[in-house]
Amino acid sequence: MNLPNILPLKSQLLFLPELNREKLNIGSTLQDLTLYRIAVSPECSTHKVAKILTNNTLLPGVVIAKDNEFVGVISRSRFFEYMSRPYSVELFFKKPIHIFYKYLHTQALIIPQETSIVTAAKKALKRPKETLYEPIVVKLQQTDRAVYKLLDMQQLLLAQLQIHQLTMLALESTQKALVEEKDKAQVTLCSIGDAVITTDALGKIEFLNPVAERLTGWLLEEAQGKLLIEVFNIINESSRNPVKNPVETVLESGCTIGLANHTILIARGGDEFAIANSAAPIRTLNGETIGAILVFHDVTSERQLTHLLSWQASHDTLTGLVNRYEFERQLEEALLTAKLENQQHTLCYLDLDQFKIVNDTCGHVAGDELLRQITALLQSKIRIADTLARLGGDEFGLLLRQCPLNQGTLVAKALHETIQKFRFLWEDKNFSVGISIGLTAIDDTSQTVATLMSAADAACYTAKNRGRDRIQVYQANDSELLQQHGQMQWVSRINKAFEENRFRLYCQGIVPINSFNDNFQHYEVLLRLIDEEGQLVSPMAFIPAAERYNLMPKIDRWVISTLFANQSIFYRKNPHLYQSSTSKYNCLYAINLSGASINDEQFIDFLHQQFILHRIPPETICFEITETVAIINLSKATQFIHSLKQFGCRFALDDFGSGMSSFAYLKNLPVDYLKIDGEFVKDIEKDRVAGAMVEAINHIGQLMGLQTIAEFVENDNILEKVKALGVNYAQGYGISKPLPLTFSSVPL
User: What residue intervals traverse the membrane (predicted)?
Assistant: First the structure.
């Protein structure tokens, strides 16, 4: 008995493998069961499970599953002796259940992880007996529309049963009444939208309705008297192998069954239809089986849509490659074979080096075409068994199955040479494209998919840092790789810190040293993180990782929204505390902005919304951007500054002097404050060149009407020197240390 033949209904009976003369036949039951995510429904009672296990002594035990994942076994003896080699429960714990059955050479009953059912199974396995099996009600978990109707099937079965019941009654009543009722039932079968075929007890066709005629290509007159297998030719959609005649199974077992979901009907003329069907016995009043009824309908369109949606969920639509989700799923299986079967694989992380130039020069259409051509090139150099995936943007993943690292390195070199020789032509332009490749081994020492992806990514990033367009193998003792690996680990830690609200705002005072506005309060807003052990973490530990993995816009937005929210509450309660006789506002908070936020088209809109939402006076906010960020995209930075200055905000150019052409760019940036790079300020006591640089920067700033701020003022000597040079403000540990930013009755 090939099981389970799952009917395309919302709920039906799924039978355990039939016990035929002390031999348990399993067929494709477990594979189909797990492939289509069948879960035991509430109708799987403790009584039925206990009875099945008690009556079927050839069942070695039960497999406990939760959410289609293996969680354990209960057995009569050592369950894992039935497997191809000795394994442990822990090895399969929380793995998809179909992976467990790949290594199982016996049969088992699947039960849900429910206390009452597990307890019943434990008890039943201690007192076996010899009888037949019982069915279990299961539920097919699918989200498609209700294209299959249970009521239609029931009505069909009742209609056919009614025909034979009336036939028997006719022997006791009039032949005329029987014919009338039989004709009514026949009309019902001919009027419904599903195909219906009935056979006698030998499997010979007695009736086809019009829908069955259309789908099979046989007329009723031609099909009558023929065996069903001559008219109803069905195969498996994937393997193209013949599928066992469902009516034959029904007549043998006397049970209602359904075909698996991947059944194809080949019509008389060669047309193929994806069908969903079920078959049931036709019995007399005394229970004698006198034939069978087969009901099926065309689900070709629905199945094509299902295949399309399934493909789209696991593939990249631009290149046709598998996506990150599917790639990581396959990587999980490769990792399992490495542990269970001592196989060796290689994981490659590939990143195009000149993709942005093509995109920026020729547009996204050209960039898309480049990705398609690169995909074709890479696929031409790998085996069918290997998996190439597009992970996002211009990044690709490659899984080389059963390929040790030394061989994987040779494959990577071949791919690298292929890309080096490639030239991308677009209209009148010719581009060369480089590729950086990071590799890592997959073997029995590998830990998780996440650590593998992290190692390959770190190796790829190191290849870029060392000159791009090269290959880098991950080595656990490489200090640069360890640094990159650490940054990747910070990504999850940063996201978790957001979830657990472990970021904190600090501030450091900026004091006037050549100014008489003693009432003016000026602070730089700083960010700190509380780690998992409750320790304070400096931003230099996590900001590099946040910048690389594009988390800075999220951090910048959190800082702004958090500061504004607290500032708003304080201002509403104490409006007099931030106003002075000479200026409407006597507090200024300086907020650092990343280059990613400045280049974000939606960031200015976000700022406007926050100012309006919290009613924060823009005059109380100063944004700081580093000189390096400003120079990299001067026009964008200038536009950004102009936009917010019109709104009332002020700007400071941070770390001034660190760039190669600082003075040349300064005149193009409409800033209010010039913060002198602390590397010069801290050495001003002993380095005459550093003193000259501070003096020059301050002099230029004063000529341009800018207020100058000396950073890294660590002691009184440095303070006196910058004061003598005419610098307006000082900031550093010699002035005040960073403190938690708390709004109280007195301004900070």
Answer: none
Find the mean pLDDT for residues 131-160. 36
CA dihedral 300, 303, 304, 306 (to 10 degrees): 160
Residue 640 burial by CB count (10 A; 0-12/13-18/19+): exposed, middle or buried? buried
Question: Are the C-beta atoms of residues 522 and 585 closer than 8 Å to each other?
Answer: no
pLDDT band at 517 (very low <50, low <70, confident <90, very high): low
- DSSP code for 337: H
In angstroms, the CA 411 to CA 734 distance is 58
Q: Name all contacts of 375-383 with Cβ < 8 Å and 24+ positions apart.
A: 375/319, 375/320, 375/321, 377/418, 377/419, 377/422, 378/350, 378/415, 378/418, 380/418, 381/411, 381/414, 381/415, 381/418, 382/411, 382/415
Helix H or strand E segment including 349: strand 345-352
CA distances from 404 to 124, 321, 440, 599, 730 (A): 48, 23, 10, 43, 59
Residues 6+ away with beta carbon under 8 Å from 378: 350, 388, 396, 398, 415, 418
Helix (H, G, I), strand (E, B) or coil at 382: coil
Taking the alpha carbons at both ends of the chain, their separation in whole angstroms is 81
* Residue 648 pLDDT greater than 60, yes or no: yes
Closest to 461 in 3D by CA, of 416, 400, 395: 395
Structure tokens at 62: 């039960």
The listed range with the strongest mean pLDDT (9-13, 174-178, 532-536, 717-721) is 717-721
468 phi-psi bin (left φ>0, alpha ψ -120 to 50, beta other): left
- In the prediction, which pLDDT does 549 show? 79
Q: Which residue has the higher pLDDT, 592 or 475?
A: 592
Answer for the pair 333, 339: CB distance below 8 angstroms, yes or no: no
Rounded Cα distance, 69 and 74, in Å: 15
Q: Is the pLDDT of residue 505 over 70?
A: yes
**Nearest Cα residue to 13 out of 137, 111, 98, 113:** 137
CA distances from 347 to 23, 322, 334, 402, 448 (A): 45, 15, 10, 11, 13
DSSP symbol at 547:
H
Please give the helix or strand (H or E) that residue 673 lies within, else none. strand 673-676
Alpha helices, DSSP H, located in 257-389: 300-314, 324-341, 355-362, 364-379
Q: Which pair of structure tokens corresponds to residue 337?
A: 């074979």
Q: How far apart are CA 217 and CA 272, in angstroms?
A: 11
Alpha-carbon Rg for the chain in angstroms = 37
For the four alpha carbons of 586, 592, 596 and 599, in that order, the dihedral sign comes to positive
**CA–CA separation, 106 and 435 (whole Å):** 49
* CA 417 vs CA 159, 295, 321, 421: distances in Å: 70, 59, 22, 6
The residue to which tokens 């504004």 are assigned: 564
Residue 236 has phi, psi (to 5 degrees) of: -80, 135
Quick one: CA dihedral 584, 589, 595, 596, positive or negative? negative
Is residue 527 within 8 Å of residue 505, measured between CB atoms?
Answer: yes
Would you place residue 565 in the very low, low, confident or very high pLDDT band (cuts 50, 70, 90)?
very high
Tokens for 660, please give them: 């190669």
